[in-house]
Write a structure and sequence with these properties.
By secondary structure, the protein is an all-alpha fold. Helices cover 79% and strands 0% of the residues. Helix 11 runs antiparallel to helix 16. The chain starts with 14 loop residues before the first helix and ends in a 20-residue tail after the last helix.
Length: 419
Amino acid sequence: MAGSSGEAVGAYTRPFLVVTLLAAVLLINYVDRGALPTAVPLIQHDLNLDNEQVGRLLSAFFWVYALVQVPVGWLAERYGAHRVLAGGLIIWAAATMLVGITSSFGMLIALRMLLGLGESVGFPAVSKLVAAVVPIEALGRANGIIGFGYLMAPGIGIFAAGLLIDHVGWRGTFVTFGLLSLLWLVPWAFVRLPKLATARSDDATPTWGMVLRQKGLWGTSLGLFSSNYMWYFILGWLPGFLVKERGFSMHEMEYVGTLGYVVNGVSALATGWAVDRYIRSRGSANFAYKLVMVVAHAGAVPCMLGMALGSEHVAVAAMFGFQVLMGASSPGVYAMSQILAGPRASGRWVGVQNSVGNMSGAISTWLTGFIVDRTGHFTLAFIVCAVMSLVGLIGWIGMIPRLQPIPWERLRPADRTPV
């Protein structure tokens, strides 16, 4: 584990426990944001919303979530990622609870935007903390565990929301989710982190100019844009697709959707372990992470086309295939950034990466609603996802340099302006 010189190992919490809590907070993050798509058929009926309004509702979250990633990354490095993470959770838990008492489309839009503000702290703060407490040779497992958390979350959310909706309705479900989210703050209050994870910016911190001039930053951003376009399409519209176009009942949708996300999370965990094992046997991190990205993005194309054009059995098989591939790519999405940026720049690097990458969430959710309303089917939306998958290879393979820590201290002294 990385830490400041002179710190006793026993003075801070073990890396595995820190990573487990970070996985838990991102699981909560995704369960809360995924509650709305699960309840959309009921909310749409109660509030008389059309598909385009649903698309606008889903995309409202991402416009705020994406735009504030950069300042949140700066805040995490300036004032301590551990504090920023806790504050963000309080905001998004409150936004989730308030959905349970809303009565209009306008109020829902406002609360989805507030949720985006709170949840924006997740990945910049988590990446800053992981880069500070986990060595490079263990980043695959760490990000695999974290990926297991947030990739499993939609499945857990679908299952839990389905059960709760049956007993307390969709309004009570949101109130319950928000209250339970706050419980994470209890164990987090007792975590002790090394100074490198909690320290504020100083003269050794890379400047914005240094960070923004890195080609690899824009490569990871384009790659994430592509990955997220597909991920948020599945997250936001899979329940509706299964129910409306494939004729699944709500309970069948809950079962298939939950199992798919379980497969996704297990794939992330297994791939992170395999990559670390390969690196420890003197393998190349550069080769391992980039190979996984090639296989995942190239393989996603036939999966998307299978879901759109295949029979019911082919579509379900293609959905599970896609979940395996996207789970496998998950550890590398942030491990690459953590390796390149290091603990002193990971917060801002991932802030920029997530800002660009999550704009696709706003586009994907809205554009899908627009396409379905105009065509009456999801086919064209799946084809757009297949094209976006290929675009991601330009970022992950064509723009990212060899994976190794950037020597920030060797950059020109003239670049060292205040952060």
